[in-house]
Design goal:
Order of helices and strands of chain A: EHHEHEHEHHEEEHEHEHEHHH
Oligomer: homodimer
Organism (chains A, B): Sporosarcina contaminans
Shape of chain A: globular
Largest sheet of chain A: 8 strands, parallel, barrel
Number of strands of chain A: 10
Radius of gyration of chain A: 18 Å
Keywords (chains A, B): Lyase, Metal-binding
CATH superfamily of chain A: Aldolase class I
Pfam family, one (chains A, B): HMGL-like
CATH class of chain A: Alpha Beta
Distance between the termini of chain A: 29 Å
Structural class of chain A: alpha/beta
GO molecular function, one term (chains A, B): lyase activity
Protein name (chains A, B): Hydroxymethylglutaryl-CoA lyase
CATH topology of chain A: TIM Barrel
Number of domains of chain A: 1
Mean pLDDT of chain A: 93
Chain lengths: 300, 300
């Protein structure tokens, strides 16, 4: 009945998006062990770190070392918020770089003190440099469904922002329900529209599980033909601007569903749980995802 | 794109299925306060208690008092595992009675020390008496997707068991993924088949959230035309025969999704959370459902 992709790619965001929102500073060696375990589990694409100023995000102060020390995986992303970050990322040898912006003006003002237009104007020369260097560029688009300040975001505004990114030559659009408010019909409708509008660009879906709809939203996005999903081992992360928000959807839960649906991921859930077990002692809260709970009771 | 029901009914199972699997014995007055709060939230159908022997399930020792003390709601179910339980339920004035059996032989042997056939043979006269008394009979069918002992359950076996119940005159089939292993495609396929095979019987879907697919399974069941869902406030409950299994899908999370999809439930999520707040101090673990976490941070 359902026409679903036969193969999907997981973009593991735990080491960057997950840990960036974690208040405990995790030692570089523990991050590297976590990353290695994720690779061992079969993860082919990963957000590794961010070349943000360590003044603002001390957790990411070891970005250069993380890039240099990690063996190349299929595709490793680093985030760079601006030109300086992009330069540092290139120097460290990064081959795939992610940039980000929200659809919502208010969210961008709060987050990076720029309007959406100002943020896009600032990103344009950065993306031009990256593309000239042959870098794979991923554009992460936050608040694509709801904004904590502006409420419902119109699909047309998401498409318009994506169109600007596509015209700048980005290779991938990662479209996020940052505060975990989207429902499965909204997920299906936006991702279907994105697939139809941008057939030649990779499109990833990024869900947060705040209101427990993330897995249902992924199922709906699969129905819309999406075959790339961001997720975070252990559900690490969360949105610092949304009180009470829980984290990213958990890689182990997403992969479990995809695997049981017979959709190829190349990832071993048990080994993702091993990676979670490595990082859990170093983060500030116990990890209670579905598959990790079962793993701890040896029920996987 | 999706053709979904416009209206759904929630069968709240917290006071029975939830508390029956709770190790702390909850005082009758606290149960009654919980039930009252659930009614205030708009719940129209509820599993109230079980006329099981208090020797086996001390938590349900106050079944008679619970039935007598609760104001009539749209439909209140009590469980009765056998003829004696049915007699006690009728004496207490119950108008709707639920009976239960698993599809899997091994599960029934473990649970009630009978094969599936033996269990059905024992239920036949009970159902005949109940129907003769004009009672609404709900048949709860467990292990309809997977069994902890037998693995995957064939759809044909579920249909065959349901056919026997329908021939006995039951009014509703509540079909359960008891150990939380079903995926959304399996949910869609079984519920679509049930809808087509039994067009004149009410069909409810009962999911556990052990592997975090319950909400996605409900979304898939909606696509199959299912408009009745069992759920438990606070996600109370769980399967005592499956180690590590978490509880029923949480009413507040199910209703939130349905409400945001524009599907009528008649239930107020915030008031369900008020009911959860009443019961939480009396159960043995903290309640961490999506909407209840937000409620506690006043973000609902």
């Amino acid at each position: 009945m359902f026409i679903l992709p036969k193969k999907t790619t997981i973009i593991e965001v735990g080491p960057r998006d997950g840990l960036q929102n974690e208040k405990n500073i995790v030692d570089t060696k523990n991050k590297l062990a976590f990353i290695q375990a994720l690779q061992n589990a079969g993860v082919q694409e990963m957000e590794l770190t961010s070349f943000v100023s360590p003044k603002w995000v001390p957790q990411m102060g070891d970005a250069k070392e993380i890039v240099e020390q990690t063996k190349k995986i299929g595709r490793q992303f680093v985030l760079s918020p601006n030109e300086k970050g992009a330069e540092r990322a290139l120097e460290a040898g990064a081959k795939s770089i992610a940039v980000f912006v929200g659809v919502s003006n208010s969210f961008n003002k709060q987050n990076i003190n720029r309007t959406t237009d100002e943020a896009m104007d600032a990103l344009q020369p950065v993306i031009a440099i990256l593309k000239a260097e042959g870098i794979f560029v991923r554009a992460c688009i936050s608040t694509a469904f709801y904004c904590p300040y502006e409420g419902k975001i119109e699909k047309e505004d998401v498409i318009e922002l994506c169109r600007r990114f596509v015209s700048m030559g980005v290779d991938e659009l990662s479209v996020a329900d940052t505060i975990g408010m989207a429902n499965p019909v909204e997920s299906y409708e936006l991702f279907k529209l994105l697939k139809v509008t941008f057939p030649d660009v990779l499109i990833a879906a990024h869900f947060h599980d705040t209101r427990k709809m993330a897995i249902a939203n992924i199922f709906a996005a699969l129905q819309a033909g999406i075959d790339r999903f961001d997720s975070s081992a252990g559900g690490l992360g969360g949105c610092p601007f949304a009180k009470g928000a829980t984290g990213n959807v958990a890689t182990e839960d997403v992969v479990h569903m995809l695997n049981t649906l017979g959709i190829h991921t190349g990832i071993d859930v048990n080994k993702i749980c091993e990676a979670v077990e490595i990082i859990e002692p170093h983060v500030s809260r116990p990890i209670e995802t579905g598959m990790y709970r079962l793993y701890k009771t040896k029920e996987v």
